Amino acid sequence: MILVALWRRGLLERADREKLRHFLGLARDPLALSRRYPMWRILGPMRLLFSPRYAEAVARWVEYRMNLFDGVEG
After folding, report:
1. Taking burial as the number of CB atoms within 10 A of a residue's CB, which of 22, 28, 29, 33 is the most buried?
2. Domain ranges in the chain?
């Protein structure tokens, strides 16, 4: 479900290698909080796979985080 929700919002096109590494906690920046507490840890993977409502909410949250990363918001 999460891939469908991300695709509908156009986020799969916007996700580049740097953003994915940051999200997974593999970024090279030693000061980034995502190295110690990657964003994916707070998400329920089974809920993401089977709950369309939860997947849509997470997709909105990922879009917001991507906009912050790109400097569009905040």
Report:
1. 22
2. 2-70
Q: What percent of the chain has pLDDT over 90?
A: 12
pLDDT at 41: 74
Answer for the pair 72, 19: CB distance below 8 angstroms, yes or no: no
What's CA 16's distance to the chain center, in Å?
11
CB proximity list for 35: less than 8 A, separation 6 or greater:
25, 26, 27, 29
pLDDT exceeds 80 at position 31 = no
Q: Give, rounded to a whole angstrom, the gap between the first and last alpha carbons of the chain.
A: 28
Q: Among 49, 68, 62, which Cα is nearest to 11's?
A: 62
